[in-house]
Amino acid sequence: MKILAFVSLFACIALSFPLFDFAPDWPFNAFSLLHGNGHQDRLLKLGPDEYRLASEQEKLNLKRANKRFIDMTEQISIDVAVEQGLVAKPSHSLWQKLFFIGSKQIDTLKKPIPVYNYPKKTQYSSEVKNLYNSIDIDGVRDNLSNFTSFYTRYYKTESGAESAAWLFDQLSNLIAPFKEIKIEKIHHKGWDQFSIIVSIPGEVKDKVVVGAHQDSANLILPNIMRAPGADDDGSGTVTTLESLRIILEAYRTGTYKPHNTLEFHWYSAEEGGLLGSIDVYSRYASAKEVVVGMLQQDMTGYTQGSIDAGVEPHFGLIEDYTSVELNSFIKLIIETYNSIPYHSSECGYACSDHASALENGYPSSFLIESEMKYSNKYIHSVMDTIDRIDFEHVREHVKLTVAFAYELSLAKKLH
Ligand SMILES: *[C@@H]1O[C@H](CO)[C@@H](O)[C@H](O)[C@H]1NC(C)=O
Ligand SMILES: *[C@@H]1O[C@H](CO)[C@@H](O)[C@H](O)[C@H]1NC(C)=O
Ligand SMILES: [Zn+2]
After folding, report:
1. Lower CB count within 10 Å: N or C terminus of the chain?
2. Which of 98, 133, 162 is the last residue of a domain?
3. Are residues 23 and 70 in the same domain?
4. The model scores a pTM over 0.70
């Protein structure tokens, strides 16, 4: 009897999949055959010159296969993509689902990345190191505990919107004493979870940005399964939150006031193909905003993979599809301020939100918890939980973030 009830519950869930905008591969292959793959109405960028059309189901399958992409549907309409020869005309026939390498015209979409003169020496090490005494790891843990208690932070869910609202409240309280510091909800077209930007105005409008993504995803069934997302990217979210809190301590006492405008970003919908960040940086590019450097941190708390391999805990500095010059500056920061080293690593194209900055002509870097091969294997599942987080490692990322933000926001003559 119980088994029968269970089976019929399962069948009900299966039949209700058209309500969600995907049909899962497993264990319902037959089902997705019946319903087809849906419309290929998304334009994905999978490499510097690789575009393709995909359905929501195909996007999910790419994610499951660990293929990274930027979903550019809101930036380049499918009509324009066809016109420019980036993709073939959409059709339901199989052969047209294959990749199409674009024509020369793709170059017109590429924005050049300016090179800035980042500092070759650090200047504020006593000020910054003093601030490290204020890092409150218990507070970081409490905030991550709260953030991971949302059932999922998947960008299309109600709890995903609620988690953004919770984060917004924490940030609003934090900046409340400073009327010149701005907080903004960036609403996106097509889903409710907003991105958040906190901005400390500098003497000039050039921006220094540190970012993380707030959404999580369980890649088996993102709309209905739990995704605590403790490491991915709850850890980067609270790293960035704590770094802002520390910077504000210096700001409050008047010992620190940025020259460049310093921004803290928490992106929505990274797991949907960098949807939130590509929206943010496309708006910045349209408004001719200048971003002199952007640092993304996605996963800052897992060291067990390194420990199991007999390797010392370290940062993973991603050196493909990132700014060589900004990476050099980050190496200088790590050597000056951290008690762990970095190891160079690669993650392929568009593996986190820094790719959205780069796509829009802004130099960006990506620092992760370790080399990719030792990074957290439990992400995108119910097992990405807080008990696997090494908060001393998170502390190192906070130290790095505070130093990066402090030194680069005070740097002049970058142009
Ligand atoms: C969470 O973070 C905010 C902002 O940094 C901080 O004010 C608050 O004390 C933290 N919460 C806890 C429970 O520590
Ligand atoms: C999360 O924080 C909110 C308010 O900031 C609080 O009411 C709630 O009890 C917290 N939840 C958990 C699980 O810590
Ligand atoms: Zn992530």
Report:
1. N
2. 98
3. yes
4. yes
